[in-house]
Amino acid sequence: MSAASGARRHLIDLSPLRESPAFARLWAGNAIAGVGNQMTVVAVGLHIYELTGSTFAVAMVGGVALVPMIIAGLYGGMLADAFDRRLVAMVSALIAWGSIAGIAAVAWFGIDLLWPLYVLTCINTIASTIIGTSRQAILPRLLPARLLPAAGALSGMSVGIMVTVGPALAGVLVAFVGIPWTYTVDVILFTAAFLGIATLPAIRPEGETHRPGLRSLISGLSFLRRAPNIRASYLIDIIAMTFGRPHSLFPAVAAVLLGGGAITVGILTAAVAVGTMISSLFSGSIGAVRRHGLAIGYAVITYGASILAFGIVLVVSLGQPVTAELSGANWLAIGGATLALLGAGAADNVSMIYRNTMLLVAVPDNMRGRMQGIFTVVVSGGPRVGDLYIGLAALGAVLWFPPVLGGLLIIALAAVLLRFQPTFRHYDALEPTP
Question: Where are its TM segments located (predicted)?
Answer without folding.
Answer: 26-49, 55-75, 87-111, 117-138, 150-177, 183-203, 249-282, 294-319, 331-354, 374-392, 398-418
